[in-house]
Amino acid sequence: MSATYEVINPANEQSVKSVDLADLAATDKLIEMAHKAFTSWKKIAPGDRAKLLRSFAQVVSDHREELAALEVTNAGHTIGNALWEADNVANVLNYYSASPERLFGKQIPVANGVDITFKEPLGVVGVIVPWNFQMPIAGWGFAPALAAGHTLVLKPAEYTPMTAMRLGELALKAGIPEGVFNVVHGDKVSVDSLLTHPGIKSVSFVGSTPIAKYVYETGTKAGKRVQALGGAKNHMIVLPDADLDLAADAAINAGFGSAGERCMAISAIVAVEPIADKLIEKITERATKIKTGDGTKGADMGPLVTKVHRDKVAAYIEAGEKEGAKIVFDGRKVVVDGDGFWLGPTLFDQVKPSMSIYQEEIFGPVLSVIRVKSYDEALKLVNDHQYGNGTAIFTNDGGAARRFQNEVEVGMVGINVPIPVPMAYFSFGGWKNSLFGDSHAHGTEGVHFFTRGKVVTSRWLDPSHGGINLGFPQNT
Ligand code: NAD
How many angstroms separate the alpha carbon of residue 157 from the centre of ligand 1? Predict the structure, then answer.
């Protein structure tokens, strides 16, 4: 081990735990353990693998309070959100527990035999996750990987390793054999090893766009299959006919929930005039009731994950002010008892598309209102943006909503729904700079990413076999 890393509770700045940070040798050792375990894990009958996944889901459910408490201490989430996150891990495991039986191939009858295709795992998988929602996001990688017969090395972000490490222990408790589910607490050194080690066959990554691009390019160059989900800047269009109370509730939830540290957070509200003033009034009324504080003590919004990140988000607020946006309420003024990386909700009005607070991902509790005159102008903003993770439209006009769902260039769309919450059953992922690779995470695309097809043509000769024939088979 090269160094130790101090995990800090962002709600009181106290040390949670000192954790070893893996160096190259320690990372490679885990990859090799996973490699060794692969042959036997792949051979476990699909039905038996399904039972182990169900057992893992049950163990996670049995430990949901403990996992949620760890996440609150480590990432500053509220307890309600963290319980949802633990449940999402169990749901995704349960969904994929049906997969080993569902990894259907095809059978095609041909002359005197059958062609069959079936799906096989690729080998050892690297699962690299960010600090926000690291528990469910880890599950989106490890559940389909295990279901398809892979072994894996999971790498959480440096600041938030607690639940990943515990999930590694719970996998063993559930009966998953040693060496199948490995957790490495590491940094770039471990990521680079996962991207280049010949023992790794595919990499599933979620994080910021520059690193997602780096991971995709480095991993594919080394011959791996890679899916790399990146950053986001999600727009919510509010048309003049929308229910403004519903839209304001949604803006509050999707803008400030999880302190805006969600890849599905709404950060740009595109208000189609004349409703901007009214909408801002309703959002402001609601925002004054948000209690910022320790997620274990009934707060609605917890701290930001680290001091560096808190200061980065505050610097964006300063930049927005300097660039001429109007601050409606300012999160820098929040007062919370005790130490912690605090920042309250901030709302900007009069934001212009050229401003950095509009162009870049802030990843904190900062909402921007952009005023436009028409639906077409609003749509163009969304489609011209570099990110295409999620978006939403609020309207009572079914025709406008249908037009939007067909015309918008974004991977996940909500209609009178602020964020399409990542359920186990459908795949999750964006377009443009929000995704590098071909497939989205979990759901049916998860099965696709974690398998490859094999075609087998077999023929069993019968007594009518006619001897040597150098022509092509006549399978008509
Ligand atoms: P990040 O890119 O900094 O880190 C993600 C992972 O990459 C971590 O495990 C980290 O250790 C590793 N890493 C960091 N720097 C690296 C480097 N130079 N070389 C190799 N590996 C490196 O992202 P983050 O700050 O942990 O997470 C927040 C970001 O994740 C936001 O941009 C957010 O939008 C994004 N995110 C996206 C989704 C999605 O579904 N698209 C979901 C959650 C979070």
Answer: 8
Distance in Å, CA 174 to ligand 1 centroid: 29
| Options 67, 146, 263, 265, the catalytic residue | 263
The dihedral built from the CA positions of residue 351, 357, 358 and 362, taken in this order, carries a sign that is: negative
Closest CA to 267 of 284, 255, 280: 255
d(C-alpha 201, C-alpha 239), whole Å: 47
Tokens representing residue 305 in the block: 């994950």
221-227: Cβ within 8 A, 24+ apart: 222/195, 222/196, 224/195, 224/200, 225/122, 225/201, 225/449, 226/202, 226/436, 226/437, 227/203, 227/429, 227/435, 227/436, 227/437, 227/438, 227/439, 227/440, 227/441, 227/449
C-beta of residue 426 within 8 angstroms of C-beta of residue 414: no
Judge contact between 238 and 205, C-beta under 8 A: no
Nearest one of 161, 146, 151, 220 to 182, comparing CA atoms: 151
Q: Which residues contact 196 (CB under 8 A, 6 or more apart)?
A: 218, 222
Tell me, yes or no, if the pTM score tops 0.90: yes
Place of tokens 């989106």: 140
Q: How far is the CA of 156 from the centre of ligand 1 (A)?
A: 10
Which segments in the chain show pLDDT lower than 70? 1-2, 110-114, 460-466, 473-476
* 215-252 pLDDT tens trace: 999 999 999 999 999 999 999 999 999 999 999 999 99
Query: According to the model, what pLDDT value does residue 113 have?
Result: 66
Say whether 253 is catalytic. Answer: no
Atom of ligand 1 nearest to the CA of 130: 26
Sign of dihedral through CA atoms 7, 228, 142, 155? negative
Task: Output the ligand 1 site: residues, CB below 6 A.
Answer: 128-133, 137, 155, 157-158, 187-188, 191, 206-208, 211, 214, 229-232, 263, 361, 363, 389, 430, 434
User: What pLDDT does residue 44 have?
Assistant: 93
Which of 88, 208, 217 to probe ligand 1 with, by most ligand atoms within 8 A of CB?
A: 208
pLDDT at 462: 65
What's the distance, CA 383 to chain centroid?
22
